[in-house]
Design goal:
transmembrane helix (chains A, B, C); homotrimer
Chain lengths: 206, 206, 206
């Protein structure tokens, strides 16, 4: 994998680890519980992707840097976030949005690198992008973000489609990655800020 | 895989995708959320089965038709089910029952084809049959069907045992599949209609 | 694998199957539901470990004894636990603690046997130790033990670190296993008895 994609991947890991640590802090977990929740959030989606693709052992077993980034992120969170005891309301969703955009593109890139079709690349981007957050929310008994009415899976799917199209059209990797990541991020952040939602599929509960 | 089993597999995929879409509609999810929930319901159980067996990449990565069937099912659900805004009470459990019966038999068939024992075939049928529905219910914060007191896992286990016995006794594939599927379906539908349940294992909460 | 480790592994399977059966009894599940919940609790963590490591088919597909131990445990639980209808308050957490300690050490041992690093061994011990219990709690809609403030993941992590260090320092397998298992068990049982907890990472809910 190219070095700068690897760098982005570690950034996404840190961001999702932070979002897991913040969620853990809201449930008053102890430091080792924080590590667990930060880890499943940061490497859960990619682990599911690798297990489904059969590229095992999964990425973080082959490369210890991911676990090290998570431990460092949790350590910094425990030291620096602790004091104020009040994290601004949007910190968790915004951290989650950055992770979503980064991991979506990285998941799609890995699938295309394996020679898989564009459709599967979009799905792998989606799994990588939303998988960790879904596990985090289920463990914390939150309503999974993906279930809330705001645009969420949509941002990941658009990012994945954007990346796949850009690569197919022959754009340079860096340009494709930047375009796709920024579009997914803008869609998601706009949805957070203005509570955008697509028209819902609604059935009466019977 | 024989063609008609493949056809049944795609039918089961459509039926479970529909049950996921219906569940999504009850939570007012947007169209892309509906796609996600329909997908995990339809291919979740088989994905777990393939990951455990190590037959990776999992089936829907190797064959794009499964994703296409899901997308088509969701599109039809969005167009046709939307209007009346009221789906009969039993639609979701009945769709789920068909998927349960179909996927149980297909999961058992795949295990036997790999030369695994009858006991493992029953377990693989169970995982394939109930896996997707469990993920759907967890994501929707419903009590998983498997936890409710009605006969559910039981129907899948009986279907799996039936198929395994029928194959072992040398019955033709088609006959074995039809017998097992119908018996699982009848057991489950009867349980839905008459609220049948086995005697419960009950402990006082302390 | 050495025979006595295999014996401990089957003991851990029985203990976790019992904890799953007890949880099922509190939800009044029928006998087949009890089997399902006992199974996911007993083999869930190890299955996730094997799927992540790529040592597939996962352990219980290769060796039917695990399923047989689970079925026997459930049968005994259904027969013997049923009558008094009242299980002492600490039975479930204590059974869970034994399983946690046993499976942690066995997960770490498997990773070291594959030549993986000590850090990954600790993580694999943690996944094996806590994975099944987390799935059980999610299915039962309990707050996962790992989320409760008592020392839980901590006991597993300490057990895993203990085992890895002991092996690295050249202690005999049996000594390392006994030391690590006892320390994890003592930490967890002490936490249950005296409600010990580490200082929590706490953020105000905003």
């Amino acid at each position: 994998m190219k070095e700068w994609i690897y760098f982005f991947d570690l950034c996404g890991t840190a961001v999702f680890a932070l979002s897991g640590a913040l969620a853990a802090g809201r449930h008053r977990m102890d430091p080792f519980g924080v590590i667990v929740l930060a880890s499943v959030t940061a490497i859960g989606g990619g682990s599911i992707r690798d297990a489904l693709l059969g590229t095992t052992p999964v990425f973080w077993i082959r490369d210890p840097n991911y676990i090290i980034v998570i431990l460092a992120t949790v350590l910094l969170a425990l030291i620096f976030i602790r004091r104020p005891k009040k994290v601004p309301q949007y910190t968790l969703p915004v951290a989650d949005a950055f992770g979503l955009a980064l991991f979506t593109v990285i998941g799609a890139e890995k699938a295309l690198n394996l020679g898989l079709s564009g459709m599967i690349a979009v799905v792998m981007g989606l799994i990588t992008g939303v998988g960790g957050g879904i596990i985090r929310d289920i463990l914390c008994r939150q309503i999974p973000m993906i279930l809330r009415t705001e645009i969420y899976a949509t941002a990941s799917i658009f990012g994945g489609i954007g990346y796949t199209c850009a690569i197919t059209w022959g754009l340079a990797d860096k340009v494709a990655l930047a375009l796709a990541m920024i579009s997914a991020l803008v869609i998601r952040l706009a949805a957070i800020k203005w509570h955008l939602r697509l028209p819902a599929f609604e059935l009466k509960k019977t």
